[in-house]
Write a structure and sequence with these properties.
three-stranded antiparallel beta sheet, globular, ADP-ribosylation fold
């Protein structure tokens, strides 16, 4: 299966298993699941046919493990990132001492003011390692890696859950629990422009 096809199928599944199942006539159950046979039929009817073999390949090789089958292999769902109302049924678990969030430079001032919020999604997504956070932040520009004091948040009563593909989820992250890199922009700060060196002609 060509890499371009993998990307196209993955994006198509994300759109309809996370955000707009109704667009192709799907109805997700309360846990976000849908029968594989129903999904494949809906894709074909919408003009984007996907075979069972292609579906299994995309689930297996997706770099972020965005999708998963149930134990019977007859149902599929997105592992996290939904904007439609579903309940993943994840139990609260103790987080590692620190977690990371990848964002981009322009978003930093608002995060300093209000912290991290889920926006259209159900939860704030956090990463257990810096490199994953960096890849997430790089999607929209120069990445900025924020460090979240998850242990202190947990002690203060904030609940954490971990999705099947290893993404840490929490309802919100107040700014007091976030450490910003020293290079991240501050409110009202102006970018420092390098000075231009002007060579003066030597005297004769």
């Amino acid at each position: 299966m060509a890499s371009e096809r993998v990307v196209r199928v993955s994006k198509y599944l994300s759109q309809h298993l996370r955000h707009r199942p109704d667009r192709i006539g799907l109805t997700l159950d309360e846990g976000g699941w849908v029968d594989v046979s129903v999904l494949l039929a809906a894709c074909a009817a919408a003009g984007f046919p996907v075979t069972r073999a292609e579906l299994e390949h995309v689930v297996a090789v997706n770099d972020k493990q965005r999708f998963g089958f149930d134990e019977s292999g007859t149902r599929i769902r997105a592992n996290q990132g939904h904007t439609v109302p579903i309940d993943l049924g994840l139990a609260d678990v103790a987080p590692p001492s620190v977690l990371y969030h990848g964002t981009y430079e322009q978003a930093v001032p608002s995060i300093r003011d209000g912290g991290l919020s889920p926006m259209a999604r159900h939860d704030v997504h956090l990463s257990a390692d810096i490199e994953t956070a960096r890849r997430v932040g790089a999607r929209r520009g120069r990445p900025v890696i924020l460090t979240v004091d998850a242990a202190r948040m947990s002690a203060a009563g904030h609940a954490f859950r971990r999705s099947a593909n290893g993404v840490w989820l929490t309802a919100t992250v107040p700014p007091d629990f976030i450490t910003f890199p020293s290079t991240a922009s501050r409110p009202g700060a102006r970018p420092v422009r390098p000075r231009r060196c002007v060579r003066r002609p030597r005297g004769t």
